[in-house]
Amino acid sequence: MDMMSTLSDDLLLKILSSLPTKDVVSTMLLSKRWKFLWTMVPTLDFQNDFESSKDDYAKFRQHLRLGWHSTTDDITTWIKIAVARRVRKLKIHCYSDDDDIFLPSCLYTYNNLEVLKLGNSIVLDVPEDVRLPSLKTLHLLCVEFRNEESARRLLSGCPLLEEFVLDKSENVSPPCFYLEVPSLQRLSILDTYREGNDSDVKVVIKTPSLKYLNVVDKCDSGLLFLSENMPDMVVANIQHRVEFNQLVHLELCASVEKWCELLNWMLESSPKLKVLKLNKCKLHRFVYAKHIEYPWGKPSSVPECLLFHLNTFEWNFYNGCGEEKKMVAYILRHAKRLKNAKISLWDLDCEDEPHIFTEWRSFHRASKLCQLLSEREPRSNWYES
Q1: Residue 205 CA: distances (Å) to CA of 169, 264, 335
Q2: 10 Å Cβ neighbour count for 291?
């Protein structure tokens, strides 16, 4: 320890910054020089962890005055200390079964804060004068906004924000979330919670500088609106039911893995679809179609396009296997406006060809005007020209 004491304050602070906050605070007991050194550390991490042992938790509480049942007053005290010491990174995860945790107003107007990560029993009641001019990283994990205006104010008060992570699981965030941040480059949204009418849920994203986007909506409902102009986009992962309200003509390659699941999703998401073609696919100059290798599950409800709009259905390189028959039968049975339906076999020496064609003509049709056509794919179509 004598050797450590000979080091400069700057070097000691760098060392302390890499340690857990509870260990940093404990250094105040070492000597007079260390008594206040910990207060100069630029990063403090306040976190109550249910997984900690009782002994570790007791030591944590003794030094930081934060316990399992931390109150708003407890958090406020430590945040004011952090602000007074010009902390640049702040992470607060609190758990409370009874009381919500509110943050002090001084945090919303703190000029030096660069990273803010909040989680769990925290309620964000954002004032009108919110201003976080240095904040670049914001993570909100299962926190709650007091109202929709608080969400709008917080984001508008971060002019340099570059990274935003929002986990809406198990909370009651406002159903309409407007994200309009010109400086934002990385965005991640997780939504696994629904309360009330799904049609009221709306997320609007207007981020022209965005490079990385990750949206996971496990509820598979609500509305997602993306800005039309994101010229710098590098990677986008969107797991959300997107509506193709203007799509009328769809051609799908029937060879990719789980393509029939993609077909179900497209049918459910394209209410005005009129033409559906399942086409041949080309691989190394050879044209082929992929058999459905697992049970096909029909949509949970009959897609709107089948009931009101689909008038043309074609399946090139049809195999006639059990799952394909189920799919064809389902489409013919529910497509009430269908006028033309056609299959073409792809197997050059198909012994079951007469049976397949006969079975094709025997399928029940919802549309009395539907004409059924069938043919064998010409040998010339087996290879890419």
Answers
A1: 19, 27, 36
A2: 13
Where exactly are the structural domains of the chain? Answer: 249-382
Q: Which residues of 71-84 are buried (b: 16+ CB within 10 A; e: fewer)?
A: bbebbbebbeebbe
**Spatial contact of 360 and 331, defined as CB atoms under 8 Å apart:** no
Backbone angles phi, psi at 222, to 5 degrees: 85, 180
DSSP-derived letter for residue 117 is E
Token code pair at residue 124: 């964000």
Dump strand ranges (E) for 87-172. 89-94, 101-102, 115-120, 122-124, 137-141, 144-145, 163-167
Cα–Cα distance, 83 to 185 (Å, whole number): 27
The CA distances from residue 149 to 125, 140, 145, 265, in Å, are 9, 16, 9, 34
Given a cut of 60, whether residue 207 has pLDDT beyond it is yes
Q: How far, in whole angstroms, is CA 336 from its chain's centroid?
A: 36
- pLDDT single digits (tens) 88-123: 999 888 777 667 889 999 999 999 999 999 988 889
